[in-house]
Write the structure tokens for this entry.
Amino acid sequence: MDAPHRAAFVRALLDPELPPPDGLAAPGGEVKRRFAVYRNNVLVSLIDALAARFPVTQRLVGEEFFRAAAALHLRAEPPPSRLLHEIGEGWPAFLERFEPAAGLPYLADLARLEAARSRAFHAADAAPLEAAALAALEPARLPDVRFRLHPSVQLVPSRWPIVSLWAAHLEAEPAAVEAALARVDPARGEDALVWRPGLEVLVRVLPAGALAFLGALAGGASLAEAVAASPPELDLAGALALLAGQGVARELILDEGTSHDP
Amino acid sequence: MATAALPARAGIGLKLAHAPALLAERPDLGFLEVHAENLMGAGGPPHAWMRALRERLPLSLHGVALSLGADAPLDRDHLGRLLALCRRYEPAAFSEHLAWSSHGPFYLNDLLPVAYDERTLARVADHIDQVQTVLGRRLLLENPSTYLRFQSSTLEETEFLGELVRRTGCGLLLDVTNVWVSATNHGFDGEAYLDRFPLGAVEEIHLAGAAPEAEMGGAPLLIDAHDRPVADPVWALYARVIARTGPLPTLIEWDNEVPVPARLVAEARRAEAAARAALVGANALAA
């Protein structure tokens, strides 16, 4: 089969309005019915993979809405990765532009949170930094210390209460979901921290100021530089506890050439 | 990287959700087979489970996304990931499909059919050569289940597979369910197909459930759904193969509507019993 034929085959797989490509044969001349099997296999398996990566997004909008939207997205942008755990990197941006979901302005960020969870799940393993490592440091050296964050760390900023909304939809019973949703303040934005210090993926709301602080550290800033880059409400003690002891950092780095050496 | 061959017993497809139960219950199985792509993340629970299970049981690594039948060069990143997995887990076997699943930048996640002509034969043979060179091991190529034929095909599927074996030295993974599915869908005789199949190159067998499609008056249509127990016609074809080849590593494939591990283990037991019965029958005929 030549390349142009393959291209026609793929176009017809993705567009149910097109007839099957030329050159195919089946008993009873049922090429159309047989081609529909491949068309269905492709679309259903990709939608299933997307639903497996974004289960709470599906629960929030309902299965029917999710699968219809997913079909539109996947036909327009078939996945570029052969790894199904990477499917849907463009799905949150699609939802943001998707008119029928306009009434759920937080939906795209919630999908970003789910994508972050699966990235953390599959991220490289690393032993987390112990609290003792930071406690053992001379106070005078603290400003110059740098951190290597754990490879699983994901930061998901949002104007919406995405962590609370996500957690509410983990409740098994619909009544419990409703009760949890009633407690969510829709006006309060939540920046999410997602990480996996061991085998379990953890999700929490970042404390005030910590998004800028961790973002600066991830970019290679020293502790003093990261504090300077953060808003005044930063809870530094809380943020340091996350880094050392709760596994957000894997290592601290001391530049031995600085003036803080003894 | 010399590793022992898969034992000539039955194994099951590994679902990572089953890993805790398999580690706790320690069922007596010949081997586990895992989809290579499910282990292509950098770390996390999939690798933690695989490391623990690999210490207990021989492993068959089964790729689904290499797209050997693609009309473009193989994806080097994907080949690199396969090599890393082979080094990390030293599987007793590595298998892939006679199919394509990618086109240009897109991954379609289905095993799509190839035309059986000289041009495709040369390209697939080149791809198999490349895989075997990079991985430093023999690839087992699986026969497909298909729903359509290409008018441009000039070779029988069995000839095409036999020629690939001859040109590349690869082995074959004979999926008996795929034979039943394709025979039903194209109206040929599955037994006659097996009589022409290059059985001498077969190193592993797959058995799975297939779903009859509501006919609406049309030609019979079976979907390779992997969602139910193995059907009687497949057991009969399996016995026919084993009577010829002797016992072979045999996988129970169940990828959708997956039951509890104990049910998969019971199906593996049934495969081992069926193989023993087929050999007794074959010996009685020979005596």
Remarks:
- Residues 261-286 of chain B form the longest helix (26 residues).
- The mean pLDDT of chain B is 95.
- Chain B touches chain A through 46 residues (CB under 8 Å).
- The first strand of chain B starts at residue 10 and ends at 13.
